[in-house]
């Protein structure tokens, strides 16, 4: 395997590169390698979704290989969401499956020479902030102001809100911890692979494939699962009935 054109080069290991810039209201805005890689991942998922949609519209009783793979993927994702969120699964099943596919494909994109979009903190923070908004929207819609206040003051009585600042900080830390966990794990693998290809050059031909298996496939899949599980856990808890 050779180093991809969008992967970090040896002289700027894992640095995000600006490709071109334009002005918006007098401010310079850069299109970077992260934007390009996100676009490639997004287009890949859109094309796959269109093909899968057309295939399932003409599904047969005896499925072929592609239809079997689609049914297996959908069945596994639905079962994971239902097992974690219970009766609330139908509301968030599409969102969880979407971020699962996006994060997984982003993490695996290093196999084809791209710089994983999840190695950019702006990407992981945006995903975590969406989860953060979902958590508190659900909490406001399904819990009374009294219940929220009691929860924020726990474990002490609500008339003694000593723990209120700590609990508020704990809530704010949720998107930060989720985004940093995903970002740091993917970034570390990207930096290591960038160093391997940068230092060894043409000698890095076959054996780095083992490192790709770990950093891109194994670690990438694990981090995708962890992010989605945390998302489902936090949202389910915000209903206040579990």
From TrEMBL:
Membrane topology type: Multi-pass membrane protein
UniProt keyword annotations, A-Z: ATP synthesis, Cell membrane, CF(0), Hydrogen ion transport, Ion transport, Membrane, Transmembrane, Transmembrane helix, Transport
InterPro entries in alphabetical order: ATP_syn_F0_a_bact/chloroplast (IPR045082), ATP_synth_F0_asu (IPR000568), ATP_synth_F0_asu_AS (IPR023011), F0_ATP_A_sf (IPR035908)
Presence of keyword Ribonucleoprotein: no
Transmembrane segments: 29-51, 92-115, 121-138, 182-201, 213-235
GO biological process: proton motive force-driven plasma membrane ATP synthesis
Pfam families: ATP-synt_A
Superkingdom of source: Bacteria
One Gene Ontology molecular-function label: proton-transporting ATP synthase activity, rotational mechanism
GO CC, any one term: plasma membrane
Compartment(s) of residence: Cell membrane; Membrane
Main location (coarse class): membrane
Functional description taken from the UniProt entry: Key component of the proton channel; it plays a direct role in the translocation of protons across the membrane.
Annotated PANTHER family: ATP SYNTHASE SUBUNIT A, CHLOROPLASTIC
Family the UniProt entry places it in: Belongs to the ATPase A chain family.
Protein name: ATP synthase subunit a
Organism: Pseudobutyrivibrio xylanivorans DSM 14809
């Amino acid at each position: 395997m050779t180093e991809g054109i969008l992967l970090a080069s040896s002289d700027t290991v894992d640095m995000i590169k600006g490709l071109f810039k334009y002005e918006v209201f007098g401010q310079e805005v850069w299109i970077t390698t992260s934007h390009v890689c996100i676009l490639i991942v997004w287009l890949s998922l859109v094309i796959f979704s269109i093909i899968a949609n057309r295939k399932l519209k003409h599904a047969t009783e005896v499925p072929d290989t592609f239809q079997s793979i689609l049914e297996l993927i959908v069945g596994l994702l639905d079962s994971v969401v239902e097992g974690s969120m219970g009766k609330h699964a139908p509301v968030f099943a599409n969102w969880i499956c979407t971020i699962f596919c996006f994060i997984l494909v982003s993490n695996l994109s290093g196999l084809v020479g791209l710089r994983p979009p999840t190695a950019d903190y702006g990407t992981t923070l945006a995903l975590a902030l969406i989860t953060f908004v979902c958590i508190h929207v659900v909490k406001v819609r399904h819990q009374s102001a009294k219940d929220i206040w009691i929860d924020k003051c726990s474990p002490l009585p609500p008339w003694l809100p000593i723990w209120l600042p700590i609990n508020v900080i704990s809530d704010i830390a949720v998107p930060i911890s989720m985004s940093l966990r995903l970002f740091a794990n993917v970034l570390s693998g990207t930096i290591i692979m960038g160093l391997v290809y940068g230092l060894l050059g043409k000698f890095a031909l076959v054996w780095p494939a083992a490192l790709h298996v770990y950093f891109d496939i194994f670690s990438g899949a694990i981090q995708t699962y962890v992010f989605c599980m945390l998302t489902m856990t936090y949202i389910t808890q915000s209903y206040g009935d579990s």
